[in-house]
Amino acid sequence: MVIRTYKPTDCLETAALFYQTVHTVNAKDYSARQRDAWAEKHRDLAGWNRSFLHHLSLVAVEKGKIIGFGDIHKDGYLDRLYVHREYQRRGVAAKLCDRLEKSVSAPVITVHASITALPFFLKRGYRIRKRQAVFRNGVFLINYQMEKRRLHIFSSGA
Question: Three-state SS for 142?
Answer without folding.
Answer: strand
